[in-house]
Structures are given as structure tokens and as C-alpha cells.
Amino acid sequence: MDKRALIIGATGIVGGNLADHLLASGDWHITGLSRGRSALRDGVESITADLTSAESVQRALSGKQFTHVFFTAWSRQATEQENIRVNGAMVRHVLEALGPSGTLKHAALVTGLKHYLGPFEAYAKGSVPLTPFREEQGRQDVDNFYYEQEDRLFDAARQFGFGWSVHRPHTVIGFAVGNAMNMGVTLAVYATLCKASGAPFIFPGSAAQWNGLTDMTDARLLARHLEWAATSPNARDEAFNVVNGDVFRWKWMWSLVANYFGMEPVEFDGTMRPLEDRMQDAGEAWREIAARHHLAEADIGKLASWWHTDADLGRPMEVLTDMSKSRKAGFLDYQSTPDSFIALFDRLKTLRIIPS
Length: 356
Prior knowledge:
Layout: E1 3-8, H1 13-25, E2 28-34, E3 45-48, H2 54-61, E4 68-71, H3 80-98, E5 106-110, H4 114-117, H5 145-160, E6 163-169, E7 172-173, H6 183-197, H7 207-211, E8 213-214, E9 217-218, H8 219-231, E10 238-242, E11 248-249, H9 250-260, H10 275-278, H11 282-293, H12 306-313, H13 324-329, H14 337-350
Parallel strand pairs: 1-2, 1-4, 2-3, 4-5, 5-6, 6-10, 7-9
Antiparallel strand pairs: 8-11
Pfam families: PRISE
InterPro entries: NAD(P)-bd_dom_sf, PRISE-like_Rossmann-fold
Organism: Caballeronia zhejiangensis
């Protein structure tokens, strides 16, 4: 195979779905680089390294040759300055180790819509551009580790002569366990807890998200977008938004999620009720549910990311994305967001992550 992919973060929601997609195509040899704490898919070669250590990455990648590298992981730090330092270094370490081989053709970086919104700690503090967000709107005047990662990517591409692409999904829906940013699984766990206890299925977010238009990104569509950009001349050295292609309001989607789990949706009353505040003691309840239904994972911390779901659903502004640039360049894929949620929930039941 002349296409040899290295996936940084191959066990995560984006990297795992990318690995599945590339494996299914049959055209790629795939390697995943991680700390080795989670098993990789069958058919994916494993390399273990500490991405924050240049020496560890250099040692792990010495003598390895890849044609494509996909950055689908980040390390959450206490402050944005630390995010910049740590996550920028992770990109730099990998590209400095791979670049001199001369075999690298393309490097893809997955960031997100915080490119336009600013980081979690600075939401709406800058001059947020008008929606729908478009790639030409540029950077916010705030510290943002996405910008540092981009700059390290651009510097390495110039130095070593490979192409690049940057991918900016909205909230990603997809299967992953032990992932720190996973709204779909978090909502499935929340709904299961509510149903088991008889508690109302209350929307935790803001009025802006309940009433406003929004969109999301299926991890499977993002995987196809990543492969397309890595192999299409039209996508070389470009940044792209990537979303499913439909739009919705949470006041409508909340009913669909509630109905799937056999519950009545609760009308939003204008009061934010963040999940992280309300789910502090949910671990024991989940262990009881897992034991009763013989579920595969009894540790709620490996399934639910309350803080991240709160951040997405609590945004005080409309978040909507334009896909025209990808469409014009030749990526015409589409995914129904309701179907994304249903497919995920069905898979979680099949794998006994949530009760049938």
C-alpha cells in the first residue's frame, strides 16, 4: 500500500472513526500513536509515545515512514496559555520527527468552531463573527491553542514541503468510550439515568441554544472529509469547516432524543441547569444500572463528559456553519443529524453501553 497513515489520537471519537473508515476502504496501512492506555482497532498498528516529549516522539517514530498524518487529539490543560504550550508542542514534535524522512505528503489537523468562538474560557469575549461561520472570517483576537497548532503545522509544511489541511467540525457525534468531548454518549447516559430514576429529562443549556439554529458533525462524515482532503489536489493547503449539512433547533431535537428513550420531553423554562452541577452523584446510580443490565462499562467517567456538553449547549450565541468552501472544492457528502443520533444510540445498545 502506498498510502501509510499515522493517526494521532486513534482511540478517540474522531481518530477511531477515521481508523474505521480507512480500514474499510482497504487502501491504507494505518498506525495509531497514543500513550497506550486504550486498545486500538484490529488492523491498526500501535506506536506508544508521550506526545508532550520531543524525545519520546522522536524515539517512537525513528525509522518510520508515513505518507499522511492526521492530528485528531488534544490535551486539556488548566489555562489557555498551557493549552497553547502543550498542544502546539505536540504538533511540532510529531512533524519534526516525520518531516526529515521526505515521505510525508500531507498533514491534516482537526480543530473546531472555537476557531471562531474563542476558547472555552473566553467564549464571546472577542468579536465573534456573524453566522454562518465562514473560513475567510479569520482568527479572533484572543489566545487560542488552535492558532498555535495551525502555525506549527504551517511552519513544518514550509520546511519539509508537504501539503496540509485544517478541519473545523462543530460538535462531533460518534462512538467512543473514554473520550473527553462526547455529547452523543453523554446525552445517552443522561437520558438513561433520567428514565431509571423517573427524573424529568431537562434541557441543561441556554435559551440561545434552545431557540436558535445550529448544526453538528457526524464523526463518520468527518472521517470521509479527512480522507478527501488528504487525497484531493483541490483541498491542498486549505482550511475547511465540516458539518453534516442540515440545521435544527434544540427545542425540536430534544423531543427526538427524549422520544427515542421513551420519555416525555420537558419544555425549556429559560433557566440553565448545567449537567456538571446536577450529575455529581450520578456515578453510584450508573453503577447500579450497569449491574442490573449487565452493561459493558460501569464507570460513568469513561462515558459522560458533562463539562463539554454543558459548554456546547450553554453557549450564549447562535453557532452555525457554512460548508460552501468544501462544496466548491468537491466534497458533496451529507449526513442527517437525527439519523446520526439514532445510529449512535442503537450502537450503544448493541454494545451494551446503555440498556436495550
